[in-house]
């Protein structure tokens, strides 16, 4: 009976997981199907997982009515620069907290950790006022610079990555006459590439999906990102007659992030593997 009960439990677990998977994936599959289905046929027939007559007309219509390719470029630019900015600050900070000793280290580290407990939305109003006073409204800088300082988690993650490296390699480097920066660039960074890649994906996805802040500081149609542009697209076109172009634009917003995740998947697994082995 125990064996039968165990099998029944596993069967029910698999059924629940499959149901959750289907519910989660179905909207994405329908979005892909609708993106390649003629706009007038999307609501005319039952929901299909693959279009009967695939077409690129929705992409053409979307591009003719709105600067979606400019939105795509803006998203790539802002997400890339935000990611680079976060890493440039977080990697040296993580190295300092993980491998160096200096006065006030613990207090400063706990202050960085404490910043993770404050929701980002609390800083929206004062940051917006600062952007307006600096006359940076409707600029890429207004979108990029305020998003970079939120690096509490990144600093913590890089600290853990550098702490996991054996101290002997740094001691050997010091005995060979290597300075601090050489230890950082030639020993530290090359050995935490998986962690950097994992953080890059996390940062890029977060920056790519910035919506509220983009809606506040980007009013120019040619400065908007795909995330904010899709909202404008939906408002201008109307939900009933714009599903095709809207889904085509939404697909454009998903593909780059998905590709980056797939390309960096090996590094992410390598970054998580030590934690899995420790179990």
From TrEMBL:
Major location (coarse): membrane
Domain ABC transmembrane type-1: 72-264
GO biological process: transmembrane transport
Protein topology in the membrane: Multi-pass membrane protein
Keywords on record: Cell membrane, Membrane, Plasmid, Transmembrane, Transmembrane helix, Transport
Cellular-component GO terms for this entry: plasma membrane
Entries under InterPro entries matching the protein: MetI-like (IPR000515), MetI-like_sf (IPR035906)
Location of this chain's protein in the cell: Cell membrane
Pfam families in the cross-refs: BPD_transp_1
TM region positions: 12-36, 71-95, 107-131, 137-157, 192-213, 242-264
Family: Belongs to the binding-protein-dependent transport system permease family.
Entry protein name: Carbohydrate ABC transporter permease
Organism of provenance: Rhizobium sp. ZPR3
